[in-house]
Amino acid sequence: MTAQVKQNTARRIRFPVEPRDVPPEKAARRLHVTLAEFTVMLPALMDRGFPGADPTTGMFDLEAIDLWRHARHPHLFALLPLTPTPQLRDSREVIDERIKKLAGG
């Protein structure tokens, strides 16, 4: 390489940066759907905890999308489920708590 080529190369980006925040088109692509499909299904996705766009930039966080996708299958990724499973309780404990609340205690 000549000195001029080395100098031009040095002026270019030294470290490639993988974007983490992306426009809706790329968020849709991450889910393997078209932008039109993504736009239609976005409210239903958000009802299920899908990470919304940044209110300032309108960009979607790819890592948050990936975590959301993994959380759909917590048993495979050792994550907490999107909706925690309610714990079963002894009915006597529940009724005792309710009686105390009704009695003002």
Helix/strand layout:
Blueprint lengths: L2 H9 L9 E2 L1 H7 L4 H13 L12 E2 H10 L2 H4 L13 H12 L3
Antiparallel strand pairs: 1-2
Helix pairs in contact: 2-3
Summarize the structure.
By secondary structure, the chain is mainly α.
Descriptive report:
By secondary structure, this protein is mostly helical. The chain contains 6 helices and 2 strands, in the order αβααβααα. The chain has one domain. The chain is 52% helix and 4% strand. A two-stranded antiparallel ribbon has the order 1-2.
Shape field? elongated
Number of domains: 1
Q: How many beta-strand segments?
A: 2
Strand order of the largest sheet: 1-2
Write down the overall mean pLDDT: 85
SS field, number of helical segments: 6
Cα(first) to Cα(last) distance is 84 Å
Helix proportion of residues, in percent?
A: 40-55%
Any low-confidence stretches, pLDDT <50, length ≥5? none
Helix and strand composition category: mainly alpha
Largest sheet: 2 strands, antiparallel
> Beta-strand level of the residues, as a percent range?
under 5%
Helix/strand order, N-terminal first: HEHHEHHH
Radius of gyration: 24 Å
